[in-house]
Structure of DEP domain containing MTOR-interacting protein:
Amino acid sequence: MDGIGNTMQKKAAELERLAEVLVTGEQLRLRLHEGKVIKDRRHHLRTYPNCFVAKELIDWLIEHKEASDRDTAIKIMQKLLDQSIVHHVCDEHREFKDLKLFYRFRKDDGTFPLDSEAKVFMRGQRIYEKLMNTENNLLQTREEEGGTFERTLVASEFIDWLLQEGEMATREETEQLGRRLLEHGIIQHVANKHHFVDGPLLYQFRMNFRRRRRLIELLHERGRSIPESHDSPFCLRKQNSDGGNTSFLSVSPTKEIKVAVGVRRSSMSSSCGSSGYYSSSPTLSSSPPVLCNPKSGTMTRTCTNYVRCVPQIMGDAVGWGFVVRGSKPCHIQAVDPGGPAAAAGMKVCQFVVSVNGLNVLSHDYRTVSNLILTGPRTIVMEVMEEV
């Protein structure tokens, strides 16, 4: 039985890696089209449509901080070439070379090998995007077996919607589609207790197709270098496995430190005003530094004066740039000084009140993490700081 379980876990890990490669490759393709890196090019009186120059792409990857150097950029693109995401326009080179050679995404010339696994992920991505881009009431906070779960789908309602959208012809076929989406890790039962069945059970999207992937993640054989895990789904810039120093502004659960303020960037928007905060207290700017020591998300001072802020944070190519911890309420554990969260005015030690209008004071950081990871790229968070 253990052997069967290990085999299933191995298969699931392989499917997850495949999904990440497909989604990451597609995100890169769309970005390159938007940046006019992919375009029709001529060579020896012949036109090659929708292609890019390898050397220029490597320059682009370094300029956009997707790779630290040319060798790393080559390894990233070689990974996409090995997975049949890109190829040389004449299929004369099986290696990605830092030369003025033309390469193309297979999706742009119709040569992408659509095996059964790839088809499921691409189908799941299309359904996910369609669901997010249309007005409906399918995704809601609901209760099941004594637990409360955000952004859930009722299986029967999901099937109704899929049929209405023309995804399948019959209810039985649609249920089978739901089962395949679950088996490939795209959706899951809220408590991981049931397969997908037509009825009142609740399910959630497990995979967030809109999360911007870092291309460097492709080089990590264990899967995502930025895990959508309970540990730190927002710590998207520092991957120091040796536990060394990072550039994050953070607060230790066992040490008292001063609140650190991130520098705002003009490209970010926030309802906090020019100072980074909307405050009902006219003496905020002259207040002394706040000391805090959040343990399990509990407040360590009895002061009842708080400053409210509602930053709007747009994730960039790397992520949102903060770490959340604790429970009931959870708090901001770390902020990347150069990230979107700091630019919007977020600080360490703040307590999270709501995410995209949903009150999360009674939830732990696992629930809040999942709520943000499965939501839109731009998040609106209400936070409070004790003064």
